[in-house]
Amino acid sequence: MINYSCINQLKTLKDIIRYTTTIFNESDIFFGHGSDNAYDEAVYLILHALNLPDDNLDMFLDANITKNEIRKILYLINKRVTLRIPISYLTEESLLQGYKFYIDKNVIVPRSPISELIQNCLYPWVKNPESITSILDLCTGSGCLAILSALAFQESMLTATDISVEALKIAKKNINYYNLQNRITTINSNLFDDIPIHQYDIIICNPPYVNTQSLNKLPKEYLHEPMIALDGGNDGMDIIKKILKNVKNFLKKEGILVLEIGNEYNNFVKNFQNINPTWVTTINTEKSIMLLNQEQIP
């Protein structure tokens, strides 16, 4: 619990940042939902609570903070430390590739490294971004990958699907925020079950893939996320098997599937010895994202 008696000692923005960073460092919270250290998380939480821009921190460091503002910040710190709630659920927003997305506990916190590939327009596998006219985002969650895809491939129409009705409400909110409602259609569907047959240039999917053993060892922060978006079954391959069984019917002959499997490389190889995908390395991942064309899919 946070000791609110410190309120009289905290005067400036610099004071509250130092104090919050110390509290976060001394706690057993896990960083992995947007930041990887106590200072960055403290600054983000505080600036959000004070409704201050994040690009002019130096300008406000010596500014005095009111007691009510300090109480608001201490309340958020307390929830972060004692309940282990990811910071993005406390602020109801998440940043991915510099873009802001509204979220709540009905969707996982956006963090897919597929976003890095989308920012680069899937180069070199896509030679001409303007040639991409149709994209499917399976398991869209907050809609972040669909939105980033729409912004990257500006000639494309997109379909974003999810099994969760509540997740699609959030996706629609983000789609509307970026004024993409005329280009992104949302469909409530269990994978391909309720999607009209159509051949797409690109299919993107960040499915549930965490295996049962790993799921039981996740830090408490992840337990605030919807299990339906994380749980991939005993070996993490339950959903991936269903995707690979049906995806060929929805992919153009020259189209590509971009599929994230997290840390389940060994389990993938065990289950799909007849598939030899292209493994894509990102800044922080290796053998976590695969690319498949139609010929590579059995």
Automatic annotation (TrEMBL):
It is an enzyme of class 2 (transferase). Gene3D superfamilies: DNA helicase RuvA subunit, C-terminal domain (1.10.8.10), Vaccinia Virus protein VP39 (3.40.50.150). Keywords: Methyltransferase, S-adenosyl-L-methionine, Transferase. Pfam families: MTS. GO terms for cellular component: cytosol. One of its GO terms (biological process) is methylation. CDD domains: AdoMet_MTases. Residues 133-214 form the Methyltransferase small domain. SUPFAM superfamilies: S-adenosyl-L-methionine-dependent methyltransferases. GO terms for molecular function: nucleic acid binding; protein-glutamine N-methyltransferase activity; site-specific DNA-methyltransferase (adenine-specific) activity. Its EC number is 2.1.1.72. NCBIfam families: hemK_fam, L3_gln_methyl. This is Putative adenine-specific DNA-methyltransferase. It comes from Candidatus Kinetoplastidibacterium stringomonadis TCC290E.
